[in-house]
Amino acid sequence: MKTIAEIDEKIRSGSAVVYTAAEFKRLVREGAEVTAAEVDVVTTGTCGVVSGTAAILSVPVAAPGTFERAERVWLNGVPCMPGPCPNERLGLLDLIVSGTAHAGAGYGGGHLFREIVEGREIEVLVEAADRSIEARVTLEDFSYARLFTTRSAFKNYTAFLNTRPTRLTTIFSVTGLQGPCREVSVSGCGEINPLENDPARFAIRDGTPVFLNGSAGIVTGEGTRSTPARPNLTVIADMVGMQSRYMGGFATSAGPECITSLGVAIPVLDDRQVAALRVLDEDIPLPVADINTRTVLDEATYADVWQRPDREVTYHPEWCEECSACVAASVCPTGAFTRETGIDRDRCLACTACMAACQNNALEAGEGSLRVRGRKVPITLRQSGRTLAEDLCRDVKERILDGRFTFTGGGGR
């Protein structure tokens, strides 16, 4: 039995043994019998579409006395909720912005959050009782900018298909989920997800330091719809320090969604935690349900999603037949692909939507399939980015190894 203080002392002395979740799973698959005495920290992570993401912002827009209070506000066209404090006659706005609020079909809160973090200039439009005010601001102008989530690290997702002979508009598809049973949409990072590795929350508790989109934050409690069988977390972090590659907007057939990432370092205190950390993709059930009724039709595992040879999408320009309009580029939900420039890895979630759209097979990846009632159904959309989540795990590991993170000191140094 170790203590947090002992692990922190090892981190400070440079003697801590730290694995990313992917490295630890590799040891398990190789048959290693790792004990708590042989490992101090395992870094876990998840990245993907998280509807329950929002920002709280304090934004200066005018000199004091210019207007009494804001009635309506937009940032880059995305509607915001003024308040909860009215900031009467201060010319300063407190705003709450949902990650799923949107200015149009292709731009929403997730896109806005990424552009704020990138330091881009943001257009503000304020409607007061007697006037309109316009301003331009950047993150440096905000006196407060925090991102929070209402259900991060969701442990148990469901895969969805459409059993009806129609194309269904849904957030689980970019172009509409084609039926009957023609394609399946999946979410979740499987064996590297923080709560898959600490389902009893021995380590991940209220107040636990975490990394939200790469920025130091904390767990504030259980998330919405959290149950013992399907737990998730609420977390909050400063937008200053976030890395844009771990966040952004994701266009679906039902409107824009928000990409959010969470990294969590798990201190290994005893062998109970080691037992939980040994979970593998093939051990994690993935129910497959009808999107119309949410009726579970069959059950796969995350090995069907992530134990494939190629998790990344590869573009082969020599196979491109230069169609008059590139459908693959038009459906890319993050704007990561054009046939002229290829794939922007800082924006690509490797969701594979472009692959399903390209008629000439100029894009490829190990996208896989799920067997549903004896029939193989191709996975045409992955709303989680396993590679990006593994990158975040490595980032957290590096912070630990170079002494920038300790469990009692946090990760903001």
Q: Brief overview, please?
A:
With 413 residues, this protein is of the alpha+beta class. It has helices spanning 4-13, 21-29, 109-117, 194-197, 271-277, 303-306, 327-331, 353-357, 386-401; strands at residues 18-20, 41-49, 53-60, 70-75, 78-82, 92-98, 102-104, 107-108, 122-128, 132-137, 144-152, 159-161, 167-168, 177-178, 184-186, 209-212, 215-222, 233-238, 248-252, 255-267, 285-290, 296-301, 314-315, 337-338, 342-343, 363-364, 369-372, 375-382. It comes from Methanoculleus methanifontis.
Please explain how this structure is put together.
With 413 residues, this protein is an alpha+beta fold. Helix content is 17%, strand content 35%. The protein has 9 helices and 28 strands. Strands 1, 2, 3, 4, 5, 6, 9, 10, 11, 16, 17, 18, 19 and 20 form a 14-stranded mixed sheet that branches. Strands 22-21-12-15-28-27 form a 6-stranded mixed sheet. A hairpin with an 8-residue loop joins strand 13 and strand 14 (177-178). The mean pLDDT is 94.
Category by helix and strand content: alpha+beta
C-alpha Rg, in Å?
22 Å
Helix content: 10-25%
Major sheet description:
14 strands, mixed
Note the gap between the termini: 28 Å
Task: Give the amount of beta strand, in percent.
Answer: 25-35%
For the secondary structure, the number of strands is 28
Unreliable parts: none
Give the overall shape. globular
Number of H/I helices: 9
Mean pLDDT: 94
Protein name: Methanogenesis marker 16 metalloprotein
Pfam families: Fer4, HcyBio
Keywords: 4Fe-4S, Iron, Iron-sulfur, Metal-binding
Domain 4Fe-4S ferredoxin-type: 311-338, 339-368
